[in-house]
Amino acid sequence: MNGDLLPACHKIIEPFIHRTPVLTSRLINKITGAEVFFKCENFQRMGAYKMRGATHALLKLSDAERSKGVVTHSSGNFAQALALAAQSMGVKAHIVMPTSAPEVKKKGVLEYGGIIYECEPTLEARNATAQEIQQKTGAAFLHPSNDPDVILGQGTAAYELLQDYPKLDFIFVPVGGGGLIAGSALAASYLGNTCKVIGTEPFEVDDAYRSLKSGKIETNRTTNTIADGLKTQLGSNTLPVILEHVEKIIRVEEQEIIDAMRLIWERMKIVVEASSAVALAGLFRERSAFRGKQLGVIISGGNVDLSNLPF
Fold this sequence. Notes:
Helix content is 45%, strand content 16%. The mean pLDDT is 95. The longest helix is centred in the middle third of the chain and has 15 residues, at 123-137. It is α/β, with parallel strands linked by helices. The strands form two sheets. It has a six-stranded mixed beta sheet, sandwiched between helices. The protein has a four-stranded parallel beta sheet with strand order 5-4-3-6, sandwiched between helices. It has two domains: 3-48 and 149-299, Rossmann fold; 51-147, Rossmann fold, CATH 3.40.50.1100. The chain contains 14 helices and ten strands. The protein has helices at 6-13, 26-32, 50-60, 63-67, 77-89, 103-111, 123-137, 148-154, 156-164, 179-191, 207-214, 238-245, 254-268, 274-285; strands at residues 22-23, 35-40, 70-73, 93-98, 115-119, 140-141, 170-174, 196-202, 246-252, 294-299. The N and C termini lie far apart (41 Å).
């Protein structure tokens, strides 16, 4: 898997996705001492970058495979993305969601025609339930972050950002299962000249930080974070890309995530979810190291439960 595949990937998904806008903020530039360009995937179809990977993975299946439907497990955004992409192509989508998934994301899946199967909020339960559905229905399993076609699809957000701003020095990306950061790293490797990718994640789920240091997939003992989209762990396809191409991973506290999220809402006037704010929180935490640079930040999504805001 390499960045050479991104142009073809982008071309086939282009009719199904939005080319999302890039915004800037004078205040955030002043705080960081850098030029910061926000790739706003909160304006993507279904409200998150996951639409890119879900669409690409579906398009890469054969007609025979699509006729039997697809199955995935997700806490929310990939669930919605696959449900919408499947609906667009007349494909049945079986979605395994943990009981702890935000109600707004469950509602989105149902509105897009997905069939929800709830399970306990553990990775083991998610995998077991998805496997059971796959065996019963013959549906093709699409992993929300570790599938190579999903990873390439997710990389098209950074691919577009670097087409628009080819002189970026760094791109900041939140890390959950690693699909977005791996795809972004492939895009930076392919298009970015000297551009490096920086991962950001909560201290409460810092498996990627530890995996980058140990060179193997690490797990989390707890998932006590407001960033519900980042509660999963790296996979066999995402880790090697991260080890080869990702510069570093910055960890942030829960209050730093909340503060960054609130700042984006109040000053940029856009709706972002906590997982998205982790990227800006990471930049703020180590901003002295990036003064004078041109920086990209991937705003990964904006699917928020408005009745349960952290501020």
